[in-house]
Amino acid sequence: MYRTLAIAAAALGAAACTSMGPAALASEPATPATSETAAAALTYTLPDLPYAYDALEGAIDAETMKIHHGKHHAAYVNNLNTALAADPALASQTLEELMAKVSTLPVSIRNNGGGHYNHTLFWTLMAPAGQGGAPSPELLADIDATFGSLDAFKAEFNKAATGQFGSGWAWLVVTDQGLKVSSTPNQDNPLMDVAAVKGTPVLAVDVWEHAYYLRYQNRRADYLNTWWDVVNWNEVNALYAAALQ
Ligand code: MN3
Questions:
Q1: 110 C-alpha to ligand 1 centroid (Å)
Q2: What is the pTM of this model?
Q3: Which residue range is the domain that position 189 belongs to?
Q4: What separation in Å is there between the alpha carbon of 36 and the centre of ligand 1?
Q5: Number of domains in the chain
């Protein structure tokens, strides 16, 4: 069985809570409320990056990181809060609960809830080159058994990422049938009921053009090849171990 709680609640804007539940999310936003409704609304906040904007420079330039985090991710957070403020019944549920039934919800929840979840996860899955460690013995054994080798896994992951038409994500997912590589369009993810491959994501890469276009333009494959240099295997290992519990 897999667990669905993949991201620490604090990273998603919650505080002092073991889930992404609204009780924690009701804590003070990072910035003062700017509208009359914000004070009462349950709100998500943009998490800080766990490194400087230029920390991944070898693979991803600082300007891209700054816009991606400060503009794109921030917009998902703001739009998610707007969507939830319009529907208090939804605001009382965790992001994971919402994603598990996202096919029944307004598309704004799917796009912006997914956008917030995916980016919050994505930032933690990267680290400055040389600081991300390596796959744990347990994960490596599973990768070898499932894909043949680490290189074969990376090739399959890159194939899913380059093969995703338009905007989306590629994933390594812990499922009830073991490790699987998949891709999703837009801001969908493996926690959503609409996903073809469902489970707990333990590695993800953003293949929206906003993630790489300034440096790589249309060369998504080049972005992916250098991206492996900044994968934070230490976090992947932790997510993998938690998913198996
Ligand atoms: Mn993005």
A1: 15
A2: 0.86
A3: 137-243
A4: 30
A5: 2
Name which of 95, 60, 62, 59 is nearest 77 in CA terms. Answer: 95
Distance (Å) from CA 187 to ligand 1 centroid: 8
**147 & 118 share domain:** no
- 208 Cα: distance to centroid of ligand 1 (angstroms): 6
Token couple for 188: 């969908």
End-of-domain residue from the set 101, 124, 147 = 124
Q: What is the pLDDT of residues 79-110, one digit of tens each?
A: 999 999 999 899 889 999 999 999 999 999 99
Q: What is the C-alpha to C-alpha distance for residues 180 and 173, in angstroms, rounded to an integer?
A: 5
**138 Cα: distance to centroid of ligand 1 (angstroms):** 30
Q: Is residue 114 included in any domain, yes or no?
A: yes
Give me the CATH number covering residue 167.
3.55.40.20
pLDDT in tens, 181-214: 999 999 999 999 999 999 999 999 999 999 999 9
